[in-house]
Amino acid sequence: MPALETFELKGSDTILLRKQAPDSEGNDAAAAPRTLGVGSVSSLVFAMAPTENVLQAFMSNKDAINDEQSTSMHAQNSFVEALSIAWKDPYGPSKSYLIKLVKSFIRRYIGDDEDRLQQSENLLALLAEMLTLQGAARSVPDPDEYCHLSFPLPSDDDDKELLLLRIRIYPYHNDVSLRLWEAGAVLAEYLIQHSSLIHGQTVVELGAGVGLTGLVCTATCRASHVTCTDYSTGALENMRYNYNLLLHSSSGATRYSRSDYVFEALHLDWSEIDSLPVASNSIFHETGNSLPMMSLGLKAVKEANVLLAADVIYDACVIPSLVRVMQSFFKSPTGRNTKQPKTALFAATLRNKASLNLFRRELVDVGLSLEILFTGQECERLPPLFPTKFVQPRRDVQIYRIRCDSVIQNVKKYR
């Protein structure tokens, strides 16, 4: 894994981040105008991290603050420079988020001192542009408004490059699959640290949402085949869009080609499993005229070696169907990679203990069980590669391994 330092962002729509070359005196070129490295101020801004975290990172940056006055002209202009990149980037964060960030900076470090505020014409100009846009915006949030989150990630085989993963989200949409949630981000961080679980595997994700975890499996963990499934048509279209962002850059340079990635987004309604006959609900389902057609999404579940799911038990009504889909995964023979055993990982944010207990009971009823793989405290200690502001803290997330206790996997029984 490459060192997590400051890297140069080469273009607003590129997926490549290269380590900056040292200057003639051997120092890192940290003052380059476009930087986006793990833990840098720019990376926090592009990830829409909590404003408090962004301001703390900025004020601790010695290159931005070069004297004892945090509100100096240099500090103000450095802050404007960092935010202007995100403001002008068509694949940048939410405009309302950036406006809130500027207001928080002024309120905290400048306050009502108008003389000091006027020292930076750049800050005034940026604020004026932002407020003009805000004044023209709707008073009611637009559900069709979208923005992008950007995350520099370690690439799989080159210690001089980082991979930039961009994810489109719809912050105000009532479709929860169009937003990024805690457990999916933490599960992705866990898999990056334990990529051997995914490398070379056939992976399927249930309730994939924006597709972040599946794209991480594709680009960073190097799965041989990744299928992201969801019920929402909007989610499927958005996942394919995010996949295309991963493939292409404005410069025309592409880190990986389509032949390197085998990624697909497929529709899957978990209740489909309930409409199939018992025989077809287990192993080989040869579709005939008298039997319902099995969807490509369910077929992908049966063929996978690794099953992933995160934050998918918020609705108790669908938990029984979800569990039967997981049961189908274990009952089926190994898929494309027949030499690998079945592995299922499940991440959940503790929101409703009743839903988690119901999920656990339903698993037991079909011969499956939950085993804690990573506690909330361990999740909190993972490198925060996805530092977006979430509703709940990372310590509320736990990662489980779903174990197959008594589900019969002998395919001969079902022939």
Q: Please, could you describe this protein's structure?
A:
This protein is of the alpha/beta class. Helix content is 35%, strand content 16%. It has helices at 41-46, 51-59, 73-88, 95-109, 114-117, 121-136, 182-193, 212-219, 233-247, 272-275, 296-303, 319-331, 353-365, 376-380, and strands at residues 7-9, 16-19, 147-154, 161-169, 202-206, 225-230, 263-267, 306-310, 343-349, 368-374, 397-404. Strands 7-6-5-8-9-11-10 form a seven-stranded mixed beta sheet, sandwiched between helices. Strands 1-2-4-3 form a four-stranded antiparallel beta sheet, covered by helices on one side.
What's the SSE pattern?
EEHHHHHHEEHEHEHEHHEHEHEHE
Helix content: 25-40%
Number of helices: 14
Report the portion of residues in β strands: 15-25%
Global mean pLDDT: 79
Largest sheet, if any? 7 strands, mixed
Question: Rg, please?
Answer: 23 Å
Bulk shape:
elongated
Widest sheet, order of strands: 7-6-5-8-9-11-10
Q: Class by helix and strand content?
A: alpha/beta
- Total number of beta strands: 11
End-to-end C-alpha gap:
45 Å
**Unreliable segments of 5+ consecutive residues:** 1-35, 249-254, 278-291, 407-415
What descriptive keywords fit this protein?
single chain; 415 residues; alpha/beta; seven-stranded mixed β-sheet; 14 helices; elongated; disordered N terminus; disordered C terminus
